[in-house]
Specification:
Chain lengths: ~120, ~200
């Protein structure tokens, strides 16, 4: 696979990542799951994607005015929007992080497109 | 594999005709790697935030200014506790690094004699790290001139042996690695570090 081909796959993926969200379930991910286990719907926000060679950096902010008082333990990047079926690409868990109204939470997720 | 290659390889290795033999000639498997995820908080301080009931108070919060913090790292988490570094970007490179971390050639770490490549936090704030195993995939050079170190608490550096699980004496929640070269330059395509 050529680098230009990998970069095209990267671009196709980037177009398909429209948003991200957080949830409160910290149990380990299982491949057969379809997304977050306890998603907090109010945390859905659009993403900013920075593209470089074979890489997408997805950035997401859950600001201080939304979904506060939750202790978050999982996040996911996804394809969502009006009239389309939501697809969650991944699910990542972590030890609990309380979202207070004095803080924004910022998530940065890297995706690599590789020949191995 | 072509018939010519197949015969040639069998001749070289003396393997019988009926034995299976697979030679990977090209890196032709394509992977999408679900890479590290970092979580930060930004403390708003006295900044004015529309829609926030405690941060949109006239006379209290500062419109157009305020003392909000920068990003404060809270977590770095990896799939299956496996960190993968392909040297495509510098997000996890520490500023102390003197080696060429994917700058001259994207996707390649080049460490000349007396140079150091050191990561920032590659796992952070999520769990106590007891051990780590590092694997390095060389394009040129070898492990013979490299010293591998890692820290689980961001302070105490311990020496690792390639591919051997290392149990940290000083456990912690802030994992970093460091490579120091004392010989002929080496080129590294990627590194994996498994930890738990």
């Amino acid at each position: 696979m050529l680098i230009v081909g990998l970069n095209k796959i990267r671009d196709l993926h980037a177009v398909g990542i429209t948003s991200a969200w957080l949830g409160t379930d910290g149990t380990l991910p299982v491949e057969s799951q379809t997304g977050l286990q306890t998603a907090i719907y109010g945390s859905v926000q659009g993403v900013t994607i920075t593209t470089s060679q074979q890489t997408n950096l997805v950035e997401y902010t859950c600001n201080s005015a939304i979904a506060t008082s939750n202790t978050f333990r999982e996040f996911s990047t996804m394809y969502s929007g009006a009239g389309i079926t939501t697809i969650e690409y991944n699910r990542r868990t972590f030890t609990g992080l309380l979202h207070e109204d004095n803080d924004d939470i910022v998530v940065k997720q890297l995706f690599y497109y590789m020949n191995l | 594999m072509t018939e010519y290659d197949s015969v040639k390889v069998k001749d070289q290795l003396g393997r019988p005709e009926d034995k299976g033999l697979m030679v990977k000639r090209f890196k032709d498997n394509v992977y999408i790697v679900d890479g590290p995820g970092a979580i930060y908080t930004v403390s708003l301080g006295t900044a004015f935030v529309i829609g926030n009931p405690t941060k949109a108070v006239l006379g209290t919060n500062t419109l157009g200014a305020g003392n909000s913090s920068g990003n404060v790292l809270q977590r770095v988490v990896n799939n299956n506790n496996l960190y993968f570094e392909p040297f495509l970007v510098t997000n996890f490179r520490d500023a102390i690094t003197s080696a060429d971390w994917g700058i001259t050639t994207v996707g390649l770490l080049e460490i000349a004699n007396a140079e150091v490549a050191q990561s920032g936090s590659i796992a952070y704030g999520d769990q106590t790290i007891n051990y780590a195993t590092i694997n390095i995939f060389f394009l040129s050079g070898s492990i013979s001139t490299l010293t591998i170190e890692a820290t689980a608490d961001s302070t105490n550096w311990e020496t690792l042996t390639l591919t051997k699980p290392h149990t940290f004496t000083n456990k912690g929640t802030n994992l970093k690695f460091k490579l120091t070269n004392t010989g002929t330059a080496v080129q590294i395509e990627y590194i994996t570090i498994e930890y738990n």
